[in-house]
Amino acid sequence: MIELLAAAAIALNQSTQPEPKLDWWRDARFGMFIHWGLYAVPAGSWEDKGTGHAEWIRTTAQIPLETYDNFVEKFNPVHFDADAWCEMASDAGMGYVVITSKHHDGFCLFDSKHTEFDIMSTPFKRDIMGELAEAAPKHDIRMSWYHSIMDWHHPDYLPRRGWEKDRSADGADMQSYRKYLHAQVTELLTNYGPVGIMWFDGEWESTWRGVYGKELYELCVTLQPEVIVNNRLGARGGMEGLTGMEGYAGGYGGDYMTPEQEIPDAVDKGLDWETCMTMNNRWGYNTLDKNFKSTTDLLQKLSDIVSKNGNFLLNIGPKPDGTFPEESVQRLAEIGDWMDVNGEAILGTIGSPFNSLPWGRATQKLGDGSSTLYLHVFDWPEDGKLH
Ligand code: FHN
């Protein structure tokens, strides 16, 4: 892995001059991921298909399209409060929020003129993205959109799911789908003010090409030159999230790399990257998934990531009523308590000057002719001396 990272750094050099548009993102170091949509209604369980599902439930429980569409009339998050969500993120020391405008199931949490499969067809009839975009700046949050390339609902998207034997692919046309995708990305980057990040995903299927990813990147930066775009436009390179060399040469490498559910061992200082991770085991809400990481574990992951010059995108899977799971709320508050005292050791810092430390991690801030070193001690040596 380290070799790959070094190689990526070499491949990137010519294209990763310090990109000023990433400065706010590098300083932020910490963000909130939100996976929310129709899948919160079944909340992980479906008939006799088990209880371990989440945002992939339409596929993992093989729910036919017409049946899944019934969740539209059941999605009514009456307790959704954009200000409360943004305030919890900000109080936890997070500088940005990335929310699923559309996940793989194709349902849009925003008012799109290009589909009826959106929030305006639910009893809720309020534009979630619009309310979050309005609330975010009031809480010093950069609002950002996760948008899936893969779409299990749109008639033109291919391939169909293998188990969808009775859902014909006749007439499906990926070029038409790409026009739909571009039209919605245009809505997301036109209707909601300045957007921090376009966080693409679902880029791995056979019908998608790096060249399409390059087109998508160009569309985003044409609409908002300062928008940051992640690397999930082409060859992400698996869960390590390290764009293959062809990605950068091909122009679809995006602005930063996206390891998922894992923290790289070591990353070349020249690379921008962000680990995205769940608090429990799943991205979308599952009533039975109580395997939440402890606050200490989450904070040590934050320190570890930032000590390696990365960002931490920590996920929340909201409930169908529009509230966060109690376990998530508790951890966000405890993280916030820690950040109130220690935030300067995270926010605006860069990676450690040391390769490794036996007792913890380090971060630093470089000033004019001086630097400040922050020692994050996980395990105090018995003699109390840090070597
Ligand atoms: O398939 C998705 C998954 O549901 C989730 O959204 C994660 C978060 O980054 N991304 C994909 C898996 O890599």
Give a description of the structure:
- This protein is an alpha/beta fold.
- The chain contains 11 helices and 9 strands.
- The protein has helices at residues 2-13, 23-28, 57-60, 65-69, 82-91, 128-135, 174-188, 210-223, 245-249, 295-307, 326-342, and strands at 30-34, 96-102, 142-148, 197-201, 228-229, 274-277, 311-316, 360-366, 371-377.
- The protein has a 7-stranded parallel beta sheet. Strands 8-9 form a two-stranded antiparallel sheet.
- A hairpin with a 4-residue loop joins strand 8 (360-366) and strand 9 (371-377).
- It is globular, with a radius of gyration of 21 Å.
- Bound molecules: ligand FHN.
- The site of ligand FHN has 6 residues, from loops.
Strand and helix layout:
Layout: H1 2-13, H2 23-28, E1 30-34, H3 57-60, H4 65-69, H5 82-91, E2 96-102, H6 128-135, E3 142-148, H7 174-188, E4 197-201, H8 210-223, E5 228-229, H9 245-249, E6 274-277, H10 295-307, E7 311-316, H11 326-342, E8 360-366, E9 371-377
Parallel strand pairs: 1-2, 1-7, 2-3, 3-4, 4-5, 6-7
Antiparallel strand pairs: 8-9
Helix pairs in contact: 5-6, 5-11, 7-8, 10-11
The structure holds ligand FHN.
